[in-house]
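Please check both lines for our workbook:

___
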Amino acid sequence: MSNFPEVKVGVVAVSRDCFPESLSVNRRKALMEAYTAKFGTGNVYECPVCIVESEIHMVQALEDIKKAGCNALCVYLGNFGPEISETLLAKHFDGPAMFIAAAEESQNNLVGGRGDAYCGMLNASYNLKLRNVKAYIPEYPVGTAEECADMLHDFLPIARAIIGLSDLKIISFGPRPLNFLACNAPIKQLYNLGVEIEENSELDLFEAFNKHAGDERIPAKVKEMEEELGKGNLKPEILPKLAQYELTLLDWVEQHRGYRKYVAIAGKCWPAFQTQFGFVPCYVNSRLTGMGIPVSCEVDIYGCLSEFIGTCVSEDAVTLLDINNSVPKDMYKESIEGRFDYKHTDTFMGFHCGNTCSSKVCNPQMKYQMIMARSLPIEVTNGTLEGDIVPGDITFYRLQSTADCKIRAYVAQGEVLPVATRSFGSIGVFAIKEMGRFYRHVLIEKNYPHHGAVAFGHYGKALFEVFKYIGVPVEDINYNQPASLPYKTENPFC
């Protein structure tokens, strides 16, 4: 099943009547040729309508790209562009929009071949603000055909996340666990973002699970799990219950998605879950996340929302981890110092019980949840997927509503180091430049909860733009600032 959208961008070239229309038409063709040469044809559509100071042509262009199945829009200023109709394009298009502009091609053609799109982009941005129209504008939005092709390609993950959010339903089960006030989730901002939420009791889930007892699909699902786990299948006796639970969640998704195309789940996984269900749900959570259906632990609704955004941006499995524990000094001295360009305070361990997709874990093994087994019989704590998280680039990020319903976010790029954790759970040694300062002056100072979403790769550029587009105030999109750029709350004497 596909749980995030496919993006098709309609490219509409605009022209102002006192500039040669041929500039826009020819530059549009050059843009499309450059894009196709680099990225293929699957994600873009060239609208044949070229707008010349005409709202009627604007309507025709919108009808054309809608008929072509476009769910994202690129307004391309081939010359100065018509302020009104180009802005109305974005206003009346039902989906994310971007604006880019053509650079001048040659010093030898600056009379009849000068388009002044560099100037026109200023008026476009002014009119967008005047009409309260959202649009993505790249960092430097004026370029050659090849450069604009790259900008258009960079827009795809941004558009995918925005489209996905507009058709997302979050399904939650139960209130957050006792003493987990950090998972408080005011839902007002979900509705502001266009996200639906269905809140259910744990009893509702337990009833559905019991109704799946003896489901004829369980043996086939067990076989899937056995094949995935391989030698890591250390708890084979628990697989039928886990299969039953997975089928319960998948059926719930299909029966409850309603008019929404995409779904994410926020589940309560303790303290009563183990004693009543007889297992922990971590492995099943990891499997659904691997299917593109993010599942957050501990009814972390905004963690779940963050995971979904990362899934759309990366088109890959993500995970949700505790920003968990410091790296011991002896581990840093032995395995990191001198091998990697990180200070000790740049490092930490990201951990959760066993919820990370098997493809993102080294030598995954089915085990029991050690923390819970300290106070419960081991047999009801089986069901975690444990192992060190695969080394490589990561992006740590989160979108959050505060208790007073303000929205903020953070994004930090780093990596998982190829260092043995010597611990348990789904866990890795993470390194992010200036993490110590980021930890104090963003995570603590801005009252973020302990969970962070992890995308496997560097996606900071796209995530930052997604957060801007959906309305997070730019001053509240936090990142790990370099040492040369102090935080406002940072003590200058330290």
Observations:
- The domain at 9-165 is CATH 3.40.50.10940 (Rossmann fold).
- The longest strand covers residues 392-401.
- The mean pLDDT is 94.
